[in-house]
Predict the 3D structure of the following.
Amino acid sequence: MNIRTGVEAPYKTYLAEDELPKAWYNIRADMKKKPAPMLNPATLKPVTAEELERVFCRESVRQEFDDTTPQIPIPQPIRDFYRMYRPSPLIRAYFLEKALGTPAKLYYKFEGNNTSGSHKLNSAIAQAYYAKEQGLTDVTTETGAGQWGTALSMASAFFGLKCHVYMVKCSYEQKPFRREVMRTYGADVTPSPSMTTDIGKKINAEHPGTTGSLGCAISEAVERALKLPDARYLLGSVLNQVCLHQSVIGLETEAALKKLGEKPDVIIGCAGGGSNLSGLIAPFMGEKLRGEENYRIIAVEPASCPSFTRGRYAYDFCDTGRVCPLQKMYTLGSSFIPSPSHAGGLRYHGMSAMLSELYDQGLIEARAVEQTSVFEAATTFARTEGTLPAPESAHAIRAAIDEALRCKAENKAETIVFGLTGTGYFDMVAYGRYNDGAMDDFPPSDEALAESFAQLPEVPAAG
Ligand SMILES: *Cc1c(COP(=O)(O)O)cnc(C)c1O
């Protein structure tokens, strides 16, 4: 490859600190048909704020229910914390473009520039702030790959909260360094399922030797929050409030593109629970919903956990213990667990209710990609752009490369923007398997999905 010289436009575009967004943007305010309400799993009636406030912080609940306010001001202490690692750069992938020989312009918004290594800190700091403001002393949560647990540990340390993390057991064992980062920030980290909760004991008794799942860790963290006197449970994805906080990604992207005089044709993000994608697309989806502009928006998910592309749009449980409210979402069923050989993150069985509704309305496209092709894209990216991507982020890279190659075939100079949500330093076991040629793809069989769908809760259509 030739060394590129005489680059015409900036490689990185930064905003100034005082250009940081002052308000989050709430996509739901511009949706004519809103996401379906959460239901109480016992009564199948819409959950009330009082019920949710036993589990979540008061302000978080208010944001969860707010379908009408487009701009929600970012409190000053949160903006001050954001200044430590934001605005994040919008980067033109010149070297990747060159390697692909594409006429397309590729941009990525890089969210891995903080110790937690991902975008999760954007919501962790907001949620920790609201917990502190409410006078709480403790917060509980679950973590799978570990990024959310790390982000919340950092945010909790900043506001002097005690953070209790239930970490999915296989990840706890595979990623000892993640665990130590969390403990360094003062968090208690417990492998899940544990013997510290009733649901953990039950799951351990029913499935001896289980290595855990996100749904199970969520149940444990919620139970712990309910048992501690001044604690609430915080969640790092899926919820409306998390998507709201992540809008800071898209708002900065929009501002940086404006500086460059660019308008995206295609916007791409990986989708686990849907928070980074919601955040990246927020202002663009707003324009789309208001009929001002049109963009192609692509959600990329793993073939081994394909909620959008093979899931059902139905009410489902958010956790294995079935203590959380029911959400109407694209889901593989709360009993679905992706193949243990799946290394690429994005393992949650469901999807943000808001993104699910947008997908159902045809405003978002979705595609599933197999993990060997994801790691191939990750490797290409690392070798051209330098940054070692998180496997989750590499799903978006895969789709961005495929779109850039389509542009090459069609000789079109489209502008493609994708989210590079994080770095992959703690994922070297997975990279090792790819480098050894020992990585496989295990999409679920139709039979396995049918079995899981059969356990979806029965909810009357009016619900
Ligand atoms: C958590 C995570 C994701 C997926 O979560 P979403 O809520 O779908 O955004 C993607 N990338 C990284 C690096 C993550 O840590």
